[in-house]
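U., I forgot to send this yesterday:
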Amino acid sequence: MEPSGQLDIHTVGPFRDAIADWIDKGHTDFWVTLDGLDFMDSSGLGVLVGALKRLRALDGSLQIICSKPFLLRIFSITGLETVFVIGPSLDSALEGAARHTPGLSGEAK
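Result:
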């Protein structure tokens, strides 16, 4: 998935619905590319965290592809860089996933 523009309280609904639809269809491994975003607020982060929790319950995964410094800073400030596997490209995210299984709220996968 590749959201673009702004991912905020006003635009997050279709993104959340698209993820839920894919999960409902049986997809359990996701790569979300955030480099098309100009802005993301806490509602965007909330959708990503919610999707990760749901996917992990299904023994799935969610990887973040992102190279934009302002977005990486958001993940760092919130501590979510330890929860998500984040890489600047799909290849780097896949390598990171092979080396690291981040926790979510103290849980180990």
